[in-house]
Amino acid sequence: MQSWVNRLWYQGHPLRFVLWPLSLLFALVTATRRQLFKIGLKQAIKLPMPVIIVGNITVGGSGKTPTVIYLIELLRSHGMKPGVISRGYGVEIDGVRAVLPEDSADSVGDEPAMIVARTQVPMVVGAKRVDAANKLLADFDVDIIISDDGLQHYQLARDIELVILDGERRLGNGMLLPAGPLREGAWRLDSVDHVIVNGGDALANEQLMTLEPSKWLPVSALHHGGSVPTKSDSIVAMAGIGNPQRFFDSLLAQGYEVEQVQAFDDHSDYQESVLTELADGRILVMTEKDAVKCRDFAKDNWWYLAVDAKLSSSFDKQLLTKIDQLVADK
Predict the structure, then answer these.
(1) In what order do the strands lie in the sheet with 194-198?
(2) Which end of the chain has fewer surrounding CB within 10 Å, N or C?
(3) Whether 316 and 195 share a structural domain
(4) What digits encode the pLDDT tens for the residues 63-96?
(5) 183: number of Cβ within 10 Å
């Protein structure tokens, strides 16, 4: 399914013109909703502390999760106590719930599970971001909130908006859903605080972000041994993210001998039998987001490559200055 959608949105498939009338309807519905908030018929809820939205205007992965982790570490290094809220994509949550380090991806969502496993940050997930934020404030000692996704969730008032773009795919065919990948038009990029471009080339008014490999870590929660992958090993690579090819290309660029690759749909649920057959006794490597869904049944020769987002010191300074101003105003 995802490969077909990629052809439609990013490779000029002619079916996009057939779907264009539905995109017009989507544009009307979303514009109406934005206007209701603008004129006050729908009320945006303001919180007593700064709120940073990390989102995108395209469907699919663009690098939001590494950006959220980067922000958590940046804010902590400057004495702040961030908390995170998220929808918890792909899981049914009754109301809202806090995410614990031992929570499985199928109970809270793969990205929340990954964020908390990596950072132990206070985090709450739920369909209603305002309710999630209120629980975060009630149950944890936080002084700034990061919303993982939610750019189009206008009920939650925001102080800073960061949009993440895939530097290779950017806006695809430039059309709104379902003919294209856009949730909102390209005009939306002019209204946010920063456009962060993940890889590729950033324009003059954009911030370039790179994802730098950190280290190999075992997928298994009960790892009993096994050698860390080396560049002389033949490995099998898998990825179930928005742009799997990015992961495969990064392995090749580092000089690893990739014997076989297997792309899965973003947010895929994995079965032990399928991945065991795929690995066939060989070293299996994956992304950190995939690993949180496999850690309870992983073999000792399954590894994931942790990556760290890197942004410029200029971006850090601009963001921290804006936050200082917000805190003073609030």
Answers:
(1) 96-98, 123-126, 82-86, 144-148, 51-55, 160-166, 194-198, 207-218, 302-310, 283-287, 234-239, 257-263
(2) N
(3) yes
(4) 999 999 999 999 999 999 999 999 988 788 999 9
(5) 17
Range of the domain at 324: 2-209+311-329
Residues 62 and 187 in one domain: yes
109 annotated ligand binder = no
Give yes or no: residues 252 and 320 share one domain.
Answer: no
Residue 246: enclosing H or E segment and its boundaries?
helix 244-253
- 276 marked ligand binding residue: no
pLDDT digits over 95-106, tens only? 999 999 989 999
Tens of pLDDT, residues 16-39: 899 999 999 999 999 999 999 999
Q: Is 58 annotated as a binding residue?
A: yes
Please, are residues 63 and 164 in contact by the beta-carbon 8 Å criterion?
yes
**83 is known to lie in a ligand binding site:** no
**Do the annotations mark residue 255 as ligand-binding?**
no
Q: Is the pLDDT of residue 127 over 80?
A: yes
